[in-house]
Here is the input.
Amino acid sequence: MKTKTVGCISEKKQADLYQKIVDFPLDNTEAKVPFSVRLAIDNDWSLDYTHQVVMEYKRFLFLMVVAGHKCAPSDQVDQVWHQHMLYSHSYWEEFCTKTIHKQLHHWPAEGDTEFYDWYGMTINSYIQFFGRRPPENIWIDSVVRLKSKTHFIRIDREENWIIPKSNLIKNVKNSFEQIGFAYRFKYRLLISDYFKKTRLKLMSKAS
Here is the structure.
């Protein structure tokens, strides 16, 4: 993690703050369903991917404090943020009050242009502070992020099936290919059977 002077936050304080955020525990080891497991279940993520997103969430929180501008998260990071705020004691008391000594509120952007600007600035600050672009499997392109953020709705998976469009198209294509193969196979059997019966008839007449 790189540091740069922002306002009154010295480089040493930035490094100390970042380490505090990274070390902050989100999982209660005594809970039957820890934070990360619930997050994985609710979003249908693997645990490995969930841990990656949690790490990106912590980097986002760091940027919220030191970047010097309003920040916007990726959708995955936003899911962690929403869930953390539901654990209100952990978020407001343990993290904001006791760990970083700053109240980080979730401010929705008022309009697409504002969100686009915040998200782009967040990506740029990420590069400046961490010396690399954020992982593309968590932080998608700002244009795609802006387009996709309006298409999310809550779904009860007990009553609904969720089939990704890409998989649906692939499965339909495979199904048609399989149907075509089945019909071609059946057609060849019919033709073979037809000629077999025809030969038997010809042989019978000849005898």
Q: What stands out?
A: The longest helix spans residues 165-206. The two ends are 94 Å apart (CA to CA). The chain has a mean pLDDT of 82. The helical segments are 11-23, 35-43, 47-66, 75-86, 88-100, 112-130, 142-148, 165-206.
